[in-house]
């Protein structure tokens, strides 16, 4: 039966052809084109409180102390729908990750939950993100929920310092920020940090987009505002089009048919 016989009184001809066309504000695309980074918020696009609920059951990161994480490899199919690709380890070469606990190692994590990935606002976010970066069908996208919680002071980067993640498209969305002092993001034109570009404190619902192959970034250490209560800061990281040969080798091994950035 054709769709137009089931519209139940809704004038589908009046509906926008692309429901994600206005997901990002126009200045986001313009800023990325001119400055290689942009910030905005998507609090009106997602159920932030519901997304925050998914940090409660995150497993401990087996490689990094005081961190919790889940991650999944996602891709658009030929119809433009989001699909989970399956397991592939996270792999960052030493050229992109200076931390002894992570550099040049294969890291395996539990996937994002089916409940999270089934949410319409999660699927809209991933599809809109792919549209922003012109990510096509079968290009792997790595989506993580990760963060730190505890007392005292902790380095959320666990020794990475000023770094790049080894990809072309990278975005960081803050999910929660509770009893946190610090955690200011910094962007630089060089790895040595002699050419600072901007300092940004992201609040829950704020997202930072950056061309990771052109910029370097870091984040300050985290401490408690109230010494009598623990802190907690969790983020979503989504990235694609890897320039790290180590990660691309793993992607080719696990997903032979994937479209990779191997130029």
Q: In order across it, which strands form the biggest sheet?
A: 1-12-8-15-6-2-3
The major β-sheet equals:
7 strands, antiparallel
Q: H/E series, N to C?
A: HEHEEEEHHEEEEEEEEEEH
CA-atom Rg in angstroms: 19 Å
Mean pLDDT: 89
CATH topology: Jelly Rolls
Number of helices: 5
Principal-axes geometry comes out as: globular
Helical amount: 10-25%
What would CATH call the homologous superfamily? q2cbj1_9rhob like domain
How far is the N terminus from the C terminus? 45 Å
CATH architecture: Sandwich
CATH class: Mainly Beta
The strand count comes to 15
Structural class given helices, strands, pairing? alpha+beta
How many structural domains in the coordinates?
A: 1
- Strand-residue fraction? 25-35%
Low-confidence stretches: 1-17
Quaternary structure? single chain
Organism: Vreelandella aquamarina
Protein name: 2OG-Fe dioxygenase family protein
Pfam family, one: 2OG-Fe_Oxy_2
GO molecular function: dioxygenase activity
Task: Sum up the structure in keywords.
263 residues; alpha+beta; Jelly Rolls; 7-stranded antiparallel sheet; 3-stranded antiparallel sheet; 5 helices; 16% helix; 33% strand
Describe this entry's structure for a reader:
- InterPro entries: 2OG-Fe_dioxygenase.
- With 263 residues, this protein is α+β, with helices and mostly antiparallel strands.
- It has one domain: q2cbj1_9rhob like domain (Jelly Rolls).
- 16% of the residues lie in helices and 33% in strands.
- The protein has helices at 26-35, 48-52, 114-117, 120-133, 245-254, and strands spanning 37-41, 67-76, 82-86, 90-92, 105-107, 141-150, 153-154, 167-178, 180-182, 185-188, 196-200, 206-210, 216-219, 222-224, 231-242.
- The protein has a 7-stranded antiparallel β-sheet.
- It is globular.
């Amino acid at each position: 039966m054709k769709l137009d016989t089931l519209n139940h009184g809704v004038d589908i001809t009046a509906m926008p052809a692309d429901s994600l066309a206005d997901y990002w504000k126009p200045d986001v695309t313009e800023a990325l084109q001119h400055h290689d980074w942009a910030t905005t918020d998507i609090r009106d696009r997602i159920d932030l409180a519901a997304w925050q609920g998914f940090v409660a059951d995150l497993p401990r990161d087996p490689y990094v102390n005081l961190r919790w994480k889940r991650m999944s490899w996602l891709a658009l199919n030929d119809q433009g729908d989001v699909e989970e690709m399956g397991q592939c380890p996270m792999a960052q070469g030493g050229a992109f990750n200076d931390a002894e606990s992570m550099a040049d190692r294969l890291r395996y994590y539990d996937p994002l939950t089916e409940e999270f990935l089934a949410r319409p606002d999660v699927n809209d976010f991933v599809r809109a993100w792919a549209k922003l970066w012109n990510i096509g069908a079968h290009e792997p996208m790595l989506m993580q929920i990760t963060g730190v919680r505890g007392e005292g002071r902790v380095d959320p980067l666990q020794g990475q310092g000023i770094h790049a993640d080894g990809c072309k498209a990278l975005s960081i969305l803050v999910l929660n920020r509770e009893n946190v002092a610090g955690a200011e993001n910094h962007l630089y034109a060089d790895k040595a940090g002699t050419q600072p570009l901007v300092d940004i404190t992201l609040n829950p619902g704020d997202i930072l987009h950056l061309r990771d192959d052109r910029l370097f970034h870091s984040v300050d250490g985290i401490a408690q505002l109230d010494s009598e209560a623990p802190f907690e800061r969790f983020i979503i990281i989504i990235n694609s089009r890897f320039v790290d040969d180590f990660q691309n080798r793993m992607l080719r091994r696990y997903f032979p048919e994937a479209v990779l950035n191997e130029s």
